[in-house]
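@channel sequence for tomorrow's demo:
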Amino acid sequence: MLARLLDRRKLTVQELAGRAGLTNVEEVRAVLAGETPGEGLLRCFATALGFHAVDLFILAGLEVPDDMAPLDTAASRWVPYVVMDAVHLPAAGRRELLKLIRGLPQEERYSRFVPKRLAPLAGGPGSWAIRMLQYRNLDWMGMVASSM
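structure tokens (generated this afternoon):
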């Protein structure tokens, strides 16, 4: 998958290593050869490729670290309502709302986030996309509302 990303972005191994702040190009080559990247390396790749790190963990089939999980899983029930109201705002209003949401104080994590099972989906692009959305605190209804 990394090889496809590099090809799509028209990046060389050396360019990716440079953007990721790596001094050892062999770390990138090892992943291209099939070695499983570590947590730190995936975080560096995410920054270098312009991805959310959680998405690269999902694409790599690795467990997502707790610090990347939603803090308040109960918040997902409010997302569809916010999205349905936000679509009626002008672009400037949506930007202001997003700024407000991002500026809200973060609370302590009270429980471990566990993404819901994706049965009958089992691997592949569909399940990857759904897991990525779950880590953005979107449940099924939130996924529908956010696609409107």
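heads up for whoever presents: The mean pLDDT is 84.
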